[in-house]
Fold each of these.
Amino acid sequence: MHNELKTCRVCGLNYNDFHPWGVDGKTASYEICDCCGVTFGNEDSLSHSVIKFRKDWIKNGAKWFNRDVKPEDWSLEKSLHNIPEKYK
Ligand SMILES: [Zn+2]
């Protein structure tokens, strides 16, 4: 099931067992997103900075920060659908 608390606000990556902003959605982990490379708690704190970071990331080719964990069937378009409404 889709869970916004397990989703990167910038790139829409769904994590299986990780909450970028904690289980309450308010406690930033300061970990780095495997996909877009945002630091949870820094550039993804405000919706306008989320949008800017995403725009720059896509402009630079939407490259995975941690390529070792990139799924074979990953698609940018599909991933972007997962982004919570507030941060689109
Ligand atoms: Zn991300």
Note: Residues 8, 10-11, 13, 33, 35-36, 38 surround zinc ion (CB under 6 Å).
Amino acid sequence: MKYDWKDAGEEWSAPWGTSAAQWFGAILPRIRAFLPAETILEIAPGFGRWTYYLKDYCQELWIVDRAEKCIEECRRRFAVDSHVRCYVNDGRSLSMIPDASIDFMFSFDSFVHTDREVVEAYLCELGTKLKPGGKGFIHHSNFGEYANSLRERLPPALTKLLIKAEILDWAHHRNPSMSADLFRHLCAQQGLHCLSQELVNWRGRRLIDCFSSFTRADPSKQKPTHIIRNRNFMREAALIRAKSQIPKG
Ligand SMILES: C[S@@+](CC[C@H](N)C(=O)[O-])C[C@H]1O[C@@H](n2cnc3c(N)ncnc32)[C@H](O)[C@@H]1O
């Protein structure tokens, strides 16, 4: 079924209460060290759920999405913000962006669905579009870690039943061709180094998602990646939601 953008993606923030609560409680604390930044690039902004916040942390914000409808809506939504530059792309190229011009690249809730080839194409672009020492933060799939498990080989009808009975958790359409390990290796091939990777239990028990922070720097001269396996991500979301519902004043 085609997504209708009726609520502009706001409904995806329900476990955190609102997108504002998710931004201030879950996202900003994870990227605070990289902000403010002179020039930011957001890949796959959708209807601008995070663009709305990112625009206040930079002098120039490039946003690139392969869906014309999304970029049209962002042009409308951010019409008064002349430093927001909106582009439709082919789903893998960043040719509109000058080389070595980006201080911080961000993408959240989009790369979880994309496959290895697309992630690889964007990392290849970022290897030249980021300034040397520039940083990136990508929320991507770690479902590859589970793709060959016994559980994934159960008959689909049985899996469906066990998910319904809440015995198994659902994979939320995470892409099976990407994992935290693979992402780290693909970064290294493009002259990018993963500073940290936080594996999280997105809406379930398994660590099917990963937040990778990386920099454009010679990987052989960097410290090993700091890897965190966070099984409490949804508990954190529930706390953020509870706090966001406390009446103010
Ligand atoms: C689930 S929406 C999330 C949008 C936004 N990041 C948010 O959190 O609200 C996924 C977005 O990714 C975009 N997208 C998917 N694959 C893409 C690709 N290969 N290149 C650029 N945009 C892509 C879609 O057009 C859509 O806007």
Note: The CA atoms of residues 31 and 97 lie 22 Å apart.
